[in-house]
Amino acid sequence: MKEEKYVAYVGTYTHENSVGIHIYDVDVEKGQLHERKVVPINNPSDLVVSKNKKYLYSIADEGVEAFRILPDGDLEAMNKQWIGGMRGCYVETDNENHFLFVGGHHDGRVTMMRLLPDGSIGEIADGIFHKGTGKVSDRHNSVPHVDCVKLTPDQQFLCAVDNGLDQVKIYRVDYEFGKLKLIDIIRGPLDSAPRMIRFSRNGKFAYILYELLNVVEVYKYSLKNNQPVFEKIQTISTEYKDDEDICSASGMEISRSGKYLFCSNAGVNSVVVFSINEETGELTETFRTKVDSEYPKVLAVYPDEKHYLTLNNASNEIVSYTINYENGYSLQAGAPVKVDKPNCIYILRIEE
């Protein structure tokens, strides 16, 4: 049986020693990364791989940039496009690679970009600025900040997570005319700062992470009369009671099998792992681990689900951990990988 090969793309904030997308060869068995090269690009703070695995799209200071993924996992620059607003912070593509969706933290904008048949980025199809204010507090910037854009599993709707307004706005996607239409809003608690949304692998449930409340809300997702329905079924904490003054929920990802949901907490520097009930979507805490790094802003689960890693934005490193599910803990696997201001990661299986 041919051994599967993986490559990891890590996006960073441009810094003195970090000037682009870092490409790593992934040792899944040991849970380790080995840097191969750095591809120059300014501030690739988020990136995504197309569903057909042929292209990578990244945030850049100039807007967004497209790369062709070569057979060995290397990247070849294709083109750049302006997004019609300030620099974005999150990118998403549809399954057919017709459009690229961009979330804007700085200006509260959702942008829809056309993708051309060759995978390059075309012109702006639509753009919407969020308006209004959330609850004003000393912990929370209450103007619109779109921190995550994610399509529903049926590809019909785009969920725009607005950290400043404490809302997730739901847009219907018109693929024929390239338009977004607001049709619903999930209203989070005041001063909650929703950070991201993820969907279960079976497409039946949605999980929203709240940065200030340090909770995950679980929703049942369905379609009724061609309308999206989000029914809240659970709220579960990512913190301990003693953590509440310094904890800040930062990252959330679902394992490839769909059996586990991982959350990282900045401030207290911890990772909590929940098991997912595939029938009800509800979460049960499996274990949590204190990580020896500062600000685990983002995390990722290795394909074997025996390891995970954290991207530590303050201590400038990536640290991998080996999981012991039976006894409920994880231990560091190997030495940290040094990289300035790591901010996003995508692990891709390659076929040479």
Protein architecture, described:
- By secondary structure, this protein is an all-beta fold.
- It has a domain at 41-191: Methylamine Dehydrogenase, Chain H.
- It is built from no helices and 29 strands.
- Strands 24, 25, 26, 27 and 28 form a five-stranded antiparallel sheet that branches. A four-stranded antiparallel sheet has the order 3-2-1-29, with no helix packed on it.
- Strand 2 (20-27) and strand 3 (32-40) form a beta hairpin.
- The radius of gyration is 19 Å and the shape is globular.
- The mean pLDDT is 94.
Give the topology.
Blueprint: E1 5-12, E2 20-27, E3 32-40, E4 47-49, E5 55-60, E6 63-69, E7 75-81, E8 90-93, E9 99-103, E10 109-115, E11 121-129, E12 146-151, E13 157-162, E14 167-174, E15 179-187, E16 194-199, E17 205-210, E18 215-224, E19 227-237, E20 248-254, E21 260-266, E22 270-276, E23 283-290, E24 296-301, E25 307-312, E26 317-324, E27 329-332, E28 337-338, E29 342-350
Antiparallel strand pairs: 1-2, 1-29, 2-3, 4-5, 5-6, 6-7, 8-9, 9-10, 10-11, 12-13, 13-14, 14-15, 16-17, 17-18, 18-19, 20-21, 21-22, 22-23, 24-25, 25-26, 26-27, 26-28
